[in-house]
What we know:
Elements (H helix, E strand, L loop, with lengths): L15 H13 L3 H11 L4 H14 L6 H12 L5 H13 L5 H8 L6 H5 L5 H14 L19 H10 L10 E2 L2 E2 L5 H17 L2 H13 L3 H12 L4 H19 L9 H12 L13 H9 L19 H5 L4 H11 L19
Amino acid sequence: MMAEKKTLRTKNNFDVFEVRSLLQKAIRRNDVEWAVWAVQELLPQWSAIVQSCLLTVACEDVGACCTSQLLADLDAASGASDSSFHLLKATLMLCASEKSRDTDNFIFVVYPFVTESEIESYAVTEDDKRFAEKALDKYKMEKTFPVSKSDYLSGSFSASAVQKTKKQAQRSLFVTPTETDFGTVESFDESESKNAIAVLRAALRAKDKRMAGWACCFLNVHRYVGAAWDVIYEFVLDLPSLLHEEVVVNYQSAGFLNAKKARSECSCCLQLLKSAFIICGQDEEYVCGVGFSDRDVQVYWRNSTIGKPLTLPEYTFDIHTFAGKAAGKTKNDFLFSENAALSPKRGRTVFDPVPGVVYS
């Protein structure tokens, strides 16, 4: 029997992290009523948790180009005396946007199954190897989130958001071996990371999502995120403006999220993967997030019909919650149920879990 766990509580005495779980899952399902309720329940005390959740959803669950619009809403929220209107507006936009779980699915469905022979035999050029050598030397003792490249911090988002990112993103991403979603980070040969940098560059050039994704995950695990962003920067300038801006703000979003985490938890794998997949799939159709007028937002805010529920919907409780773990929910349950629940789902998703395969 699992020991009772002390929890932080919302204003109506719900577990804060269960409501946060509900918020993300309601957005995935375009379940507007529960998403609105969750935002109302968490605000104003847990505003930082709402913002972190929305930034995660933008890269983990949404296939549309929505991060720029989201950051504009979050920036407006940070400067407002009451952030609730802007956070609800961002939530409604994410609910209505096309969904895709390609980034999170990739981590569990594809990354563990990329073979050593695929990696070692991948065609890289001498120029890729030289680039990787320089990048490895540049970032092998990386101490902060790499926000110094001014070209990344250019675009249509506000100056105040840029300054906030610069101030918040000073976190170490080079850590001693630790537990991550990928398992224990072991000691490793630097040549493996150098090869991963070269593979990422070659894969982006070839628009190979599988190997570009593998390289992003590997470099994130081993804390060479700066090198990965340097490779992505080579390609982003040639993207159409909508996709260029989405990659830029994915980078900025990673800065926001890592500023709120302990050193050993810093990661930007989802942002790296979404950026790499955009580069590889730039010829595919990408749509903007759905915008809502101020009047629409006010109507949703005033007309929420859930009130004060006695219980949260069953889909709240998965492996990421204490109650879900106690009930025996698994990562496999999560991957299949959440992928099936996406609404509206993007027409073309690549890395859906395969029926009959057990993922851990």
